[in-house]
Structures are given as structure tokens and as C-alpha cells.
Amino acid sequence: MSILHLNIGSNQDRRKNIRSALDQLENFFEKIKVSSVFESPSEGFEGKDFYNVGVNVETHKKASEVLDILHKIEDSLGRNRAMPKFSSRSIDLDLVIYGDLIDEKINVPRKDILRYAFVLAPLLELNPEGIHPEKGVSYLNLWEDFESTQVFDLNKFSLEKLYN
Prior knowledge:
By secondary structure, the protein is an alpha+beta fold. The protein is built from 4 helices and 5 strands.
């Protein structure tokens, strides 16, 4: 059994799309644990602010199967893959961590952990004792370094924000 960390983001009908993605994840994974909601400005383009949540799940599925499931959920929620990487989106589901797996081809651990607060913050919240598989340092140490070297705007809300 592997523990995975996923990131879900949306800046279009954010509450509805993230709730729907969480509901669908329950059909495929066990022991789901969800972070707080993190709101941040769009990155690399002008657009509405994003909501992001981190999700830990347990599975026996292979990484390739997990990616297929995430794409299937994105497709069901209207994700348009023809849009540029940096653009508004109904939903974005990313495999961030897959146990201790290091696989450059599928970007695991996801490089965005080191680039964006909206990826690292929920990962740290759900995995406070976690160690980055490549870097060999804790997510807490990565966060402390991130806070001291990066400029970012990130607001944290309880998960209930998605349901109110």
C-alpha cells in the first residue's frame, strides 16, 4: 500500500469543482485525508484566484493507473487540455507524491513542490513529518526556506469553505 499526495486546484466554479473532484476520488481511493483550502492568485497569467487543496490517499494502484484516474476525473469535470498550461481551468488534479517514488518521466515528486506555496503548504499540513524523496529534507524545512526566499500570496481557510 502506498500513500500518495494529490493537489486539486480550480479557478472556475471553484467550490463546486473541487467538491466534485473530492467526491469522485472516494470511488477510487482509500483513507482520504483533505487539507485546508488554500487560495492564491493565478500564476503566469491574468485570471481569477485559485482554490487548492491537498489530498492524501492510500492505494495499491500503480502510478500510471493513478494518473489515468486523475485524468478521467478532470475530463468528467470539463478540463480542456487544449488550453495553455498557464490558463484558467475548471479543475486540475496533480500527483505530487507517490510514496518514495522518484520518476522524472511522470514528474514525481512533482517539481511544483519547490516552486509554489499552494503545492507545498497543503503537502506540509497533511504530512508534517514527511521527507521529500529527492531532496532528503523535511517538508517543514522546505517550507521554512520557501518562506524566507519567496514572495507569495496565500490565504488559508478551513475545508468548510467549500461547503458554505
